[in-house]
Amino acid sequence: MESLRGRLGGDGRVASACSGRYKNDREASMFDVNFDLLRHGFTGLVMVTARASGHVARGPRGNRNRSNPMRLVGVLSILLSATPALAQEADLVLRGGKVVTVDGSGTIAEAVAVVGNHIAAVGSTEAIETYIGPGTRIVELNGRTLLPGFIDAHNHVEGSATGHFFRLPVAVPPLETADDVLAVVRKRANELPPGTWIEGQGTYYQPMPTREQLDTAVPDHPVVIRWSAHDVIANSKAMEMSGIDRNTPDPAGGHIERGPDGEPTGIFRDARQLLDLPQPSYEDKLRAIPPTLRELWLENGVTSVYTMDTLEGVRALQELRRRGELPPVRLSISFMLRDFDLDALVSTGIQTGFGDNWLKIGAIKILFDGVWGTTAATYEPHYGTTDNYGNLSRTGEQLREEVLKAHAAGWQIWIHCNGPRAQDLALDAFEAALERYPRSDHRHRIEHFANFHVDDKILDRMERLGVIPVPQASFIWRTTDELLDQEGRPRLYILRTLIERGFRPPGNADSVGTQPFSINPMFSFTRAVLRTSKFGSEVDPDEAISVMDAIRMHTIWAARSGFEEDIKGSLEPGKLADMVVLSKDPLSVSPEDLMSIQAMMTIVDGRIVFERN
Ligand SMILES: [Zn+2]
């Protein structure tokens, strides 16, 4: 840990946080940015500075000029102080802080000038003051840290909203035991007429009452409680009302757990769709989404979310935007393949990237296997079983056809794969598609890759094919001691290995409704740096990464994983003015204190959209 922190340069001024082992962070052409600046009526001076910064940031691939991290700041301040009269008046200036730009050179600056919705300049406070005019709003940072707005590169806005608003919270912690869960459910049942569904939201691997206990405590209400989006437990009333009994077959890709007598135990793994749980209505979603976006994302400094929702959820986003009720969070929407017919979608000619900077089309997401321990597709039987190799939602052949179609039609593709067998088949599919239709900059992704790592050969294939791994650092928190103690277990959340090999994994919370608290990027930072589980154990601590890399994951690398690094993910001239002011500097506090850091101000599109009192 010492060496990791040593690298971060805690003197609060200018530090080179760039280790030099990353491949080119900034593939964006700064010349595009220059056109943008021209459109915004910038002066020749700013164009010069933008070009200068582009020169510093670009460099040849893998051979970045890192001899002088002061260079960008130096260029800016010299040019700006030499000819102050040419600077355009900024709409917003933030000054006197530690500005972690996350640019390719690891520049730390002091101030930022914003014109319209774009960053006009980054530099010393003195240099940026030349942008201040009578109409400029000034934010005094008073030494606080300014970062690019965080990007959550894999989450579910609709699922989070319904979880946040409509499910009975029964998470342990804050509850302590299965009896506590039972008491909360019983209390709710007493308030509702018999036959009314109760849906509870717990969290991963928490103690839960059995079906029998639920039956005794709440015999007349159908009850379903989630550990996660994958695993739920239902009472007998819920199964009865859903027409489920011992003869109900397992659904494709899922599993109804059964006891020795063949009766369902009440536990459904990737099979909750069999339960006739009433879903929140469209109107419910319209009501729940805006406050959820504000409370869970904006108030934590997250300014962009790559979201996967149902088609109805997407329609709700459209409606909210039309009404002007969508909070100022930039959304990129990826479509889950189970929700639509692929041929119909690709025949429309719609492609990844369509839309604008507020709402755009992301990827096609394919849910291929399940979760580790039960339904992830493996080569070895899951621990404690002799014949459970997990489940696949489709055959490798089907996946290949789908990937080929989506790839040929110009889509980015994300495939959910927790197990190595699923990962190999996904890579087979990507490989076949890339052979047939070569595309150097496809940025296809494997979601959950590196959470459970079994075989380095798969890493080699990922690297060769240029597929982006999307691990979830926040899930380190839920690692059980049971898993840690298993002989021959996979290596867990191999973040350091990924980064050392040149991958740029995007940060994300993938919290759905299960871990809403983990949407705060400081939660992921803490897990990525400290590697501790909620049970107090260390999870492969040699895979810890630096706070600076955790910041990169949640900014520039996330942007890159969504083809957006030319417009966001770092504080550089020409990029969108999406920023967060933090209460403390994550690069200076002890890792144990990361969770005490709060977003004090969130700025999106050059506007202050959240301010903490
Ligand atoms: Zn997800």
Account of the protein in words:
The chain has 613 residues and is an alpha/beta fold. Among the domains are: 2-149, Roll (Urease, subunit C, domain 1), CATH 2.30.40; 168-274, Roll (Diaminopimelate Epimerase, Chain A, domain 1). Helices cover 31% and strands 18% of the residues. The strands form 5 sheets. A 7-stranded parallel sheet has the order 8-15-16-17-18-19-21. A 6-stranded mixed sheet has the order 3-2-7-23-24-25, with no helix packed on it. A 6-stranded mixed sheet has the order 9-10-11-12-14-13. Strand 15, helix 11 (311-323) and strand 16 form a beta-alpha-beta unit. Helix 6 (157-166) packs across helix 10 (282-297), helix 13 crosses helix 14 and helix 14 (420-436) packs parallel to helix 15. The longest helix has 17 residues, at 420-436. The radius of gyration is 25 Å and the shape is globular. The two termini are 34 Å apart. The relative contact order is 0.14. Mean pLDDT is 87; it is low at 1-85. The structure holds zinc ion. Zinc ion binds next to loops.
Q: Notable features of this structure?
A:
7-stranded parallel beta sheet, 20 helices, Urease, subunit C, domain 1, 613 residues, disordered N terminus
List the helices and strands and how they pair.
Blueprint (H helix, E strand, L loop, with lengths): L1 H5 L23 H10 L4 H15 L12 H12 L9 E4 L2 E3 L7 E2 L1 E5 L2 E6 L1 H4 L8 E4 L4 E4 L1 E6 L1 H10 L1 E2 L8 H14 L6 E4 L9 H7 L5 E4 L4 E4 L1 H6 L13 E4 L5 E6 L12 H16 L4 E8 L1 H13 L6 E7 L5 H6 L11 E9 L28 H13 L4 E4 L3 H17 L8 E3 L4 E2 L2 H10 L2 E3 L10 H5 L5 E2 L2 H6 L20 H10 L16 H8 L1 H5 L18 E4 L16 E6 L2 E5 L2
Helix pairs in contact: 2-3, 3-4, 6-10, 10-11, 13-14, 14-15, 18-19
The structure holds zinc ion.
Zinc ion binds next to loops.
